[in-house]
Write a structure and sequence with these properties.
The complex is a heterodimer of chains A (139) and B (640). Chain A contains four helices and nine strands. Chain A is α+β, with helices and mostly antiparallel strands and 139 residues long. Chain B folds into three domains: 195 residues, Aldehyde Ferredoxin Oxidoreductase,  A, domain 1 (4-Layer Sandwich), CATH 3.60.9.10; 189 residues, Aldehyde Ferredoxin Oxidoreductase Protein, subunit A, domain 2 (Orthogonal Bundle), CATH 1.10.569.10; 181 residues, Aldehyde Ferredoxin Oxidoreductase Protein, subunit A, domain 3. Classes of the chains: A alpha+beta (139), B alpha+beta (640).
Chain lengths: 139, 640
């Protein structure tokens, strides 16, 4: 099982990860639909990537009232069953890492699936290495 | 068909308050692409011959690149254009940060501001709406305070481009700042914005999106481009040390301007100015990337002790360090950081600000200006504190600052006594910081740059032969790697020609020129793939480069129509053309008028321009620029 590891202080705020993520998951570029979200305070150059880090005991799975979230045992990623999801946003509130965003237009949480084991955000972060993928076989 | 174009240009009449949405035809897009290319076309169409750069009839254009808003590496840049107040000629100035991505997400390929507002205003654009708002409370505020106030109102996700006090006072080298610390710096674009009473542009990307024609193909093209840059020999240094690493590089090459271009090589004292030392000296706080950049060469620096405690800002870049450091004979980095932070907050171009201060310092050195002339400030070379004080005076046009705020050409004219001979300018623009007497491609590129002498139209780093990519490129465009030496006339025109075309393409697509002309690995074939998969526009490499040539030629036409006289204006600063540089090997002869003329002749020939530097009618037809012919005839220019 792999997981994303974030080193905040290495983030340069380029948001290349957000652009790569939205292309990978949505087929278009969108800052609001990216699974990863970089909080930027440019005045003091403080950049904080927020993304699902695949907690071993994931609060989002625990709190989901309709069991729409589960873990993909092969990739380690959290899986969302869109059909079951009620859009209650309990998972958004439960995540201690601010790693779950919500898509208002579809009424669904944006859940990182690790791009099936080859996260596109990591590819965009090859120089700063603020986001790394560890512990999984890269596919 | 999905494409990275939004299809929407907004024309904002600041006099009437009317905002019009304009569609750009696919035919026009294919010819001028976007960004700088489409901006140049807009400028040609909207400016009349006698437009006063600071008057109502000038326009101010914001044009994000074709690929801005996508994940193409280093593609988030925006070109700002106007008729330039320092030169009276074409002005394009290109800026990073996050403005380009935000503009595209907000659903616009470009903004054109026309007219002049009666009272200070700012403009807000989102994917759904746009409007003008009063800016009385912001007028007078610095860039940091303005940005902060607007973000408080519109949210952290909003992107702010604004002017500071320098732009409000129409300092002729005022910048437009974005993402707080990124400057559209050169040529007085901020003075144009100030003349329009336009304090800021607020761009809220909100839920906006940017599409591409072939998402899978585009992702593949992006990955190829990333791989190329990751394997580039320069990109990693840019990431680790920023552009200010070049202080060491240029000094080793005897090309680091110092003491107002009286020197070009110094001993160990420059070390503390180099970006390589800032981490160990405790100044480096963060490595910062512009939107979509993969190697992130920008810095955030701060000072925690001593007289400049509390100074923090983005940068400084190499040019800033050379301008306020070696150029002013200041080798303590702290006043340099302080001057940089002030420029960023006042909205001043650091290159011109440092340049004009160096000129004043040389006037003091020669006894032409006294400390009384300088408001009691002892403005001698090496006086870091004095530099910082004068920067502030320039920003607010106080005392000596009011004279210097006119730029070095006008200041030298006013002071007289031969001081134009050490005014390092041509066409009215202060030159950027490379010793062109030892770098002939740079010299030629500076002489023909439509906005005046700097490196941001044709950055010919390859001529130094310092990297394998640079050497390979020289072999490709000049026929032999032996031409990868900077102090020869041979093949300089070929080198400049290639660089100015790829630079124009980079600006049109929103790609950082460091990726195409410093790192060099984002080469033409990769760009062709990115463009095709993002927009469906299928050009081959030759057609891509011809599109670059078209932009460069249109800019030339703009200047000819605006009154450019090639024999007089295709030139370099007096000192560069008439004095030797003793720090250069082999005597550092000047780029004499004869030497420059030989290089210019070859350059004109490669462009298919006539011997006087006018594009021929044939080449204008060939480049789809026939529409310029009536305008050129109007000012009495007859093509061959």
């Amino acid at each position: 099982m792999g997981r994303l590891v974030v080193e905040e202080e290495r983030c340069t705020g380029c948001i290349g990860c957000m652009l790569a993520c939205s292309l990978s998951k949505e087929g278009a570029f969108s800052l609001s639909l990216s699974r990863i979200n970089v909080l930027r305070d440019e005045a003091v150059a403080d950049f904080r990537p927020r993304v699902c880090v695949q907690c071993s005991e994931a609060p989002c799975i625990v709190v989901c009232p309709v069991n729409a979230l589960s873990r993909d045992m092969q990739t380690g990623a959290i899986h969302l069953d869109q059909q079951s999801c009620s859009g209650c946003q309990e998972c958004v509130d439960a995540c201690p890492y601010d790693g779950v965003r919500f898509d208002d237009s579809r009424g669904l949480p944006l859940i990182c699936d690790l791009c099936g084991g080859s996260p596109s955000c990591v590819e965009a972060c090859r120089f700063p290495l603020s986001i790394r993928y560890e512990g999984g076989d890269k596919r | 068909m999905n494409t990275s174009y939004t299809g929407r240009w907004l024309v904002i009449n600041l006099t009437s308050g009317e905002i019009i949405e304009e569609k750009v035809t696919p035919e026009l897009i294919k010819v001028f692409l976007g960004g700088r290319g489409m901006g140049a076309k807009q400028l040609w169409d909207r400016i009349v011959v006698d437009t006063d750069p600071l008057g109502e009839s000038n326009v101010l254009i914001f044009a994000p690149g074709v690929l801005s808003g996508t994940s193409a590496p280093c593609s988030g840049r925006t070109t700002l254009l106007a008729k330039g107040p320092s030169t009276g000629h074409y002005l394009k100035t290109n800026v990073g940060g996050h403005l380009g991505i935000s503009l595209k997400m907000a659903g616009t390929d470009g903004l054109v501001f026309t007219g002049q507002a009666a009272q200070p205003v700012y403009f807000v654009v989102t994917p759904d709406r746009c409007r003008l708002e009063p800016a009385r409370k912001l007028w007078g505020q610095g860039v940091r305070a303005t940005t902060r106030a607007l973000k408080e109102q519109y949210g952290q996700g909003a992107e702010i481009a604004c002017i500071g006090p320098a732009g409000e006072r129409q300092v002729l080298f005022a910048s437009v700042m974005t993402s707080m610390y990124n400057a559209a710096a050169r040529g007085g674009i901020g003075a144009v914005m100030g003349s329009k009473n336009l304090k800021a542009v607020v761009v809220d990307p909100a839920n906006g999106r940017v599409n591409v024609t072939d998402p899978t193909g585009f992702a593949h093209a992006v990955q190829q481009a990333r791989d190329a840059l990751y394997n580039d020999s320069v990109a990693h240094d840019l990431h680790k040390f920023g552009t200010a690493r070049d202080v060491d590089v240029l000094n080793e090459l005897h090309l680091l301007p110092a003491f107002n271009f009286q020197r070009s090589q110094l001993s160990g004292e420059v070390r503390s100015l180099s970006g390589r030392t800032w981490s160990e000296l405790g100044y480096l706080r963060r490595i910062v990337g512009c939107g979509a950049c993969i190697y992130s060469c920008h810095r955030f620096t701060g000072i925690e002790q001593g007289p400049f405690t509390g100074t923090f800002s983005g940068g400084p870049e190499y040019e800033t360090v050379a301008a306020f450091g070696s150029g002013c004979g200041v080798f303590d980095p702290e006043p340099v950081f302080a001057a940089n932070a002030l420029c960023n907050d006042l909205g001043l171009d650091t290159i011109s600000t440092g340049n004009v201060i160096q000129w004043a310092m040389e006037c003091v050195q020669r006894g032409i200006l006294t400390s009384t002339d300088c408001d009691g400030i002892d403005l001698r070379f090496g006086a870091g504190d004095a530099v910082v004080k004068v920067v502030e005076k320039i920003g607010y046009r106080e005392g000596i600052g009011d004279l210097l705020a006119e730029g070095v050409a006008r200041a030298a004219k006013q002071v007289g006594r031969g001081s134009n001979q050490w005014a390092i300018e041509a066409r009215g623009l202060e030159q950027s910081n490379v010793e062109t007497r030892g770098a002939y491609s740079y010299a030629l590129a500076f002489a023909v740059n439509p906005r005046g002498p700097d490196h941001l139209h044709s950055e010919c780093l390859a001529e130094f032969g310092g990297t394998r990519e640079g050497i390979q490129l020289i072999e490709r465009i000049a026929g032999d790697e032996k031409y990868a030496i900077p102090n020869t006339e041979d093949k300089r025109a070929e080198i400049v020609r290639w660089h100015e075309d790829i630079y124009a393409i980079s600006d049109a697509l929103g790609i950082c020129a460091f990726a195409t002309t410093a790192a060099y690995s984002l080469h033409e074939a990769l760009i062709v793939n990115l463009l095709k998969t993002a927009t469906g526009i299928a050009l081959d490499v030759e057609e891509l480069m011809r599109a670059g040539k078209r932009i460069v030629t249109l800019e030339r036409c703009f200047n000819l129509r605006a009154g450019l006289v090639p024999k007089k204006d295709d030139r370099l600063p007096w000192r560069i053309m008439h004095e030797s540089q003793p720090d250069l090997p082999r005597g550092g002869e000047p780029i004499t008028p004869e030497r420059l003329k030989r290089m210019l002749s070859e350059y004109y020939r490669l462009h298919s321009w006539d011997k006087d530097g006018l594009p021929t009618e044939a080449v204008l037809h060939e480049l789809d620029l026939s529409f310029t012919l009536p305008g050129l005839s109007e000012v009495g220019l007859q093509q061959m």
